[in-house]
Amino acid sequence: MSEEARRVAETVLELVLRHQRKLGGPVGGCAPRCARCLAAQLGQVERSVLAGVPVVFVLPAFPGKSPNAAKVLGAVPDLAERFALEFLDGLIAEIGTVHLPGAELVIGSDGRVFGDVVGIPDEDISTYQRELQVMIDGLPGRRIRLFTLDDIPLLAGQGHHRARELLVEGFAEDLDAIRERVRAGVDVELYRALTRFLFEDGDTPAYQGSRAALQRSARARAYLMMQRSKAWGDLLVEYFPSAVRLSIHPQPCGAPKLGVHLAETADSWLTPWHSVAVDLGDRFVLMKRAEAEAAGAELVSRDGRPSHFAMSRSRVEVA
Q: Which residue in 118, 63, 114, 132 sits closest to 271, CA to CA?
């Protein structure tokens, strides 16, 4: 490997690591320029640099809006998604300034993978993906591609339910193995975070059961989400073997995937599809809808649709 290729590859990764979402908080047990985090993906980037081709990143993300109206504005992408896509588009463009062939990002939109587990109807997922593509088409960089379960030739025409079954049959890990790993303390933070999201998503006025029953259901479905998410990730590796793997979940130091922040938020697990964008006057942050409303933020609409919330400067509180 040439020294120049190594230098360029490190610079590319450092641009991504500036937005790293680390397990255990902002520090996460490693330095801002961590050798272990660099080394985990350096070989993939170096090979692209030496070949003179774009560096490809793959990010499983943007599944669909939470079904809980206390968290989001509705079923379609809004300003929260737009800001996240603009951030990613800008990051790809920045990489192009240090590696002239540039970079490309594949967003593996995974709503179809586990929509039945989280309670998002397939028709809402279709609408979300269609509107998300419109947003992507409007980005200046033209370097982001949307890839979904519907794009797999083998699954085309099988129906959404059968496509999910085939994904599990072909790529999924046994659920007992996942449970054993969590009991051993591995992936426990991810399990807890998914359980919390699923409980919150199901805790709506329409729910008639007990909170204890909802918690049990959330725990069981968290394992299904972990199973399907890993299956989707493994399928993406097969389709994009040379890609640098990104994640919207916090990752430990030196992990094979790099966790990335898509927007400013006080909660390291919060994502645009579980929240709303809130204008604080000098910047935008992500919050759950109920939190924004409780803070006195006002709803803003654009083009006849709810877009985001805006908080008057006098009421801004910085966490």
A: 63
3-state helix, strand, coil in the chain (%, to 5): 50, 15, 35
The answer to whether 12 and 57 have CB atoms below 8 angstroms apart is: no
Q: What's the pLDDT tens digit per position in 248-260?
A: 988 888 889 999 9
- Rounded to a whole number of angstroms, the distance between the first and last alpha carbons of the chain is 46
Task: Give whole-number Cα distances, 103 to 9, 100, 137, 238, 293, in Å.
Answer: 12, 9, 17, 19, 39
What the block records as the tokens of 17 is 């690591």
Give the C-alpha separation, 289 to 68, whole Å: 10
Q: What is the pLDDT of residue 154?
A: 86
Maximal CA-CA distance, the chain: 63
The angle formed by the CA atoms of residues 241, 136 and 93, to the nearest 5 degrees, is 70
Q: How far is CA 204 from the centre of its chain?
A: 23
Instruction: For the chain, list the strands marked E by DSSP.
Output: 55-61, 103-109, 144-148, 244-247, 258-259, 276-279, 284-287, 298-302, 305-310
Distance, in Å, from the CA atom of 50 to the CA atom of 95, rounded to the nearest integer, reads 15
Task: Tell the residue number behind the tokens 């259901």, with chain if given.
Answer: 217
Does residue 317 surpass a pLDDT of 70? Answer: no
Helix 211-239 and helix 175-183, axial crossing angle in degrees, nearest 10: 110
Torsion 175-177-180-182 (CA) sign: negative
- pTM score above 0.70: yes
Listed residue (77, 53, 37, 40) closest to 5, CA to CA: 53
pLDDT of residue 27: 43
What is d(CA 311, CA 314) in angstroms, rounded to the nearest whole number?
A: 8
Alpha-helical (H) ranges within 96-210 are 111-118, 122-137, 160-171, 175-183, 188-202
